[in-house]
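Minutes, project check-in
Item: structure for the 61-residue chain
Input as provided by the requester:
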Amino acid sequence: MSTPQHCPGFQQFKNLQSFKCKCPDCGQEVEIFSDEFDKPRACPGCKKEIDFTQCTLDAGA
């Protein structure tokens, strides 16, 4: 038996990317991961739900 090179579940996050998004309401910068685009997320600044289709994404967060 060999020792695994990565922790269990590594493969599902292998291609995960992070982005920085500015809240369209208050301008607060929010980090989002590529697997979270379809999940509701509140802005830490204004507490409003962020519509990620309306904000500017900067890759490579």
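Outcome recorded: Residues 1 and 16 are 29 Å apart (CA to CA).
No further action items on this chain.
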